[in-house]
Design a protein that fits this description.
This protein is mainly α and about 270 residues long. About 75% of the residues lie in helices and about 0% in strands.
């Protein structure tokens, strides 16, 4: 049930109205500010690209025998790898500012109670992204590396040895893809809870669509992860668990809403004190 805005909120929203051209100019300015922030963050991250590279390659370095190098096969590959590392760090570093610019553009078009309702979800968004990124980096990635290294083969009579010669660009693309895939997919509870808060979805509807959601989760995992079964399963299982958490989260919101509606519908007591 939608909350009826107060006259003060109506007046506040009315005062924020502006011609379309002014909104377009403001949107352009917000985009420019975001691009400047990303560029500054890129310069800063490119200056420290080597430590970021060492952080991203630490799981592989821990799994490989000491002294085994990574390779690059194109003359420009190492340079563009550091550029990608800088862009990866810049996106992570500048994202809060870019999200704030988007919020500053949208917020004037919302009522005060709507802005208050959105703030917890805005705070939860980066937290869930960090949880997803940490989950894949500290738990999934080491297992994935050991799994793939298990296909190495020692040479011998009648056997050709198989040894990993990891390319710098391919490995970092693999790691960054997994981090972004898990980070964004871990936003699922935030999105579904927000939709439940505004009444677009219900816990019963989510529960009844569970079978279709599982199929959708598997399809999403197949698209956003590298083309191997291990990565796809590693993302599908947490997403299914997050979907179940979303059902419970929406159910709690519905219970709280039902209690508030019951309290508002209860007639006030007319008993006078003696």
């Amino acid at each position: 049930m939608a909350v009826t805005p107060s006259p003060e909120e109506e007046a506040e929203l009315e005062s924020s109205k502006a011609p379309l051209l002014e909104h377009l100019v403001e949107l352009r300015n917000r985009i420019i500010y975001s691009m400047i922030a990303f560029f500054i963050a890129f310069i800063a991250c490119y200056a420290v690209a080597e430590p970021i590279y060492s952080f991203l390659t630490a799981p592989l370095a821990a799994a490989l025998p000491a002294g085994r190098p990574m390779i690059y096969t194109a003359l420009y590959e190492a340079f563009f790898t550091y550029v990608k590392v800088g862009m990866f760090g810049a996106l992570c570093l500048a994202f809060p500012f870019m999200a704030w610019q988007l919020w500053m553009f949208i917020a004037p078009g919302l009522y005060r109670h709507e802005r208050a309702a959105f703030i917890p979800f805005l705070l939860a968004t980066p937290i869930m992204f960090i949880i997803g990124a940490a989950f894949v980096y500290y738990l999934i990635l080491p297992f994935a590396i050991h799994f793939f290294l298990g296909f190495e083969q020692q040479g011998g009579e009648g056997r050709v040895p198989i040894e990993l010669q990891a390319r710098v660009g391919e490995y970092l693309s693999f790691v960054m893809t997994l981090i972004f895939a898990f980070g964004f997919c871990f936003e699922l509870p935030v999105l579904l809870t927000l939709l439940g808060r505004v009444g677009i979805v219900t816990s019963q509807g989510l529960a009844s669509a569970r079978r279709y959601a599982i199929v959708g989760v598997v399809a999403i995992a197949a698209v956003v992860t590298p083309p191997d079964v291990f990565s796809q399963v590693s993302l599908s299982i947490p997403l299914i668990a997050l979907y179940e958490i979303s059902i419970w989260s929406v159910r709690l919101i519905e219970r709280g809403r039902a209690k508030r509606e019951a309290a508002e519908a209860q007639p006030p007591s007319n008993i006078q004190p003696t």
